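Table S2 (text version). Query chain:
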Amino acid sequence: MGEVKNSDNASAEFRTLDVSLIASAHFIHDVYSSFLSPLLPLLMNKIGFSLSLAGVLTLMQRIPSLLNPFVGLLASRFPLKYFLIVAPSITAISMSLLGTVSSYYALVFLLFVMGVGASFFHVPGPVLIKYFSGERVGKGMSFFMFGGEVARSAGPIVILSAVSFWGLEGSWRVMFLGILASVLLYFRLRNEKFSETFTAKKKETKAKETLKNVLPILLKIAYVTFFISLVKGSLSAFLPTFFTSKGETVWAGGMALSVLQIAGAGGSLFSGTISDKLGRKKTITIILIILPLLLFSFVSTSGVLSFLLLVLLGFAAFSTTPVMLALANEIKSERPAFVNGLYISINFFSGGLAVVLAGYLGDIFGLETTYKIIAVSVFLALPVARKLVHD
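Corresponding structure-token output:
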């Protein structure tokens, strides 16, 4: 029960074209999902709402993540590919229309719709990546996550460039790239029969029984992910603040965040392939040993050396995501989309709790001490990490 192992795929071969297509669609989808932050100052000026209400908008993007397990159940009953196909269009249209609305409630609605589109994409996406990856699931997950990581940096550039060309209300024109992604996915996937693979046994195991079987291993993954999220979340959320608290400029803090994200994209690209060769458990164990040492060294240095350590730190911290995603999708189950939806939801709450805790510790001890506390706490994940799989 809850055993982690490879299930039967359509082929043992790594289907590069199909994996690359879904990874590219992930990039395009997440480019649109990152539009809100750079548009917020313009939207606040146009519509007039507070920072607190701006925070609610971010929350509305995330609320549909609560539906991920239910999306997984739907994907077990209906052709899986169509959830993936429509998702880029849903997200592209809703996010491209943000600049056209004149009501706060319209923004809330569009962002909620975008969150639904994100669930439609991220629940079946890794399942189909696994299907097309054959015996190299880690490599497939690296392709997939690399697309998402790079999108975080590209999204603000895309939407702000659109605003520069067409103005805020004319930025809706960028939606067509997302629609094109859906069209390409449709023509490539329309004749694939993998949906039958995922739905053929749906009546043999009830969702409640599936949950009971997979929850123990998912909770172990969530436990390890929590400590990794303490590092990733605290750096992503507070790195510019940390730099300014040390007397650096705001520009230096922003540069540091960009360095972290680019290094993280590199880590996401290579770690899955490495884990295919070393094994998931060994890869995660090595990262958990290296990660706290890098974090402790980073906060204890300054200047050029701190940026060099930040590159290594970002590479190591974000390299865990494809490996953990591969682990979750290798859990033996007749409802893989449901299991992946559970994993995404658990991962979401685990990561959110980690950021809140890091902020709380930062208020009490200051960010430098907090980072050192987090570095030490990562070692608590090692005993559980060694029980995730048997290589």
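Notes on Table S2: Confidence is low (pLDDT under 50) at residues 1-9. The radius of gyration is 21 Å.
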